[in-house]
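To: structure subgroup
Subject: Chain for Friday's discussion

All,

I'm putting the inputs and outputs inline so they're searchable in the archive.
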Amino acid sequence: MRTIQSKLIIAFTLLFLISGKIEAQELELIKDLEGYWQFSVGDNSHWMKKDFNDSKWDRLYVPKSWEQQGYDGYNGFAWYRKSFKLSSLEATKPVFLVLGNIDDVDEVYINGNKIGQTGSFFPKYKTAYNQERIYRVHNSLLKADESNVIAVRVYDSWAYGGITQGTVGLYYDITNDLLEINLEGEWSFALSKPSNNINPKLSSLDWTKIKVPGKWEDAGFEDYDGYAVYMKTFTISSKVAKNELVLVLGKIDDYDYVYFNGKKIGDIFELKDRGAYFGRGNEYTALRAYSIPSDLIRKDGKNTVVVKVYDYFQDGGIYEGPIGVTTKEKFKYFEKKYYGNYSIWDLIFN
């Protein structure tokens, strides 16, 4: 009996770790932002501006709830602001702002530019207190050897509020060094219907542009749960095409069906058998990667990827990198770290 109890403890600990591994990026610290930030309760759109004077605001430690720092019982809007300088910035490496967990909803600005939001404000309120905040910061928004300002608008409905726990800092994503072709950036995007999600008539859709990776809520499709299509056309050189290639699509919320030059090459459901995620409801945690058949590749020509996504709850879309084409050999790094063929029940009963 004691042995089974011990195995149950191990199994559920592993279950927690498996379901909780959200980040596929390998991050390299640029700037540690843990420490004291300017803070004010209330809500004012001017507070997101870079040149706003916040010198008379209170100072709170981040990460730590505001209730633990003199604002016990306060529920509502509040803002955090942080100024910092970067001595240098590598233009070719993607930058991410990591803000740990924020209770309940937030939207984030860098130098007055909105870079993302997690959860939903009223009138369609949705908490996201248990989600780690990782926001892509386009390098052009940051200035080396100048003051940069982060402004975070927070709404808390009850209990603890604010930037409560976790890692806080700016990071480079160094996983992109493993890509032969980086497909991050602007993609074509359109909402679609259930009837045409599996094989939509692409020409009939109302196309726009969207940044990938990123939640579609941050691109103006707030509170949208349903079907959508992403499309990207790019060139694969003859030199790269000599390798066995893998299309890496980062993390997608929730289901995906992937086509390369008109032929389906994979979907989320087959990745479960490869150990990419554990159990129904955790599809959004899986690192998407699909082999590209060599006979589909147009060497030195235009190749098109179509990704059909279905989101059934909260945030949706291709929300996290890396995004691109790598070789099968380089993909072994990701496969070893993020895929595993095991059964949780084997841990309990074997």
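Points worth raising on Friday:
The chain has two domains: 33-175, 179-345.
The two ends are 13 Å apart (CA to CA).

D.
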